[in-house]
Amino acid sequence: MEPEQKSNSALIGIIIIIIILLIGGIYFWKNSRTKEPENPSVSDTAGSSAADLDANVNNIDLDNLDSGI
After folding, report:
1. Measured between alpha carbons, how far is residue 25 from residues 14, 50, 60 in Å?
2. Which CA distances in Å does 21 have to 17, 26, 30, 35, 60?
3. Measuring CA to CA, which of 39, 55, 67, 69 is 20 to 30 A from 26?
C-alpha cells in the first residue's frame, strides 16, 4: 500500500484569499484618504443663509395678512 499524500491546496487557497482581501483593503483605505469632502462646511453656508433669511423676513407684508378672512 502506498502512503497517503498530504494536499496543501486548501491552505494555499486560504492564503491567496487573505492576500486578495489585504490588497483590496489597502486600495480602499488609500482611496478614502485622498478624497476631499463633497459638502461645504457649515461655516461657509451659514453666513449666506442668514442673510437670505433676513432679506425674506424683511420683505414679508404683514399689513394685508388677514384680508382674506
Report:
1. 16, 43, 55
2. 6, 9, 14, 22, 60
3. 39
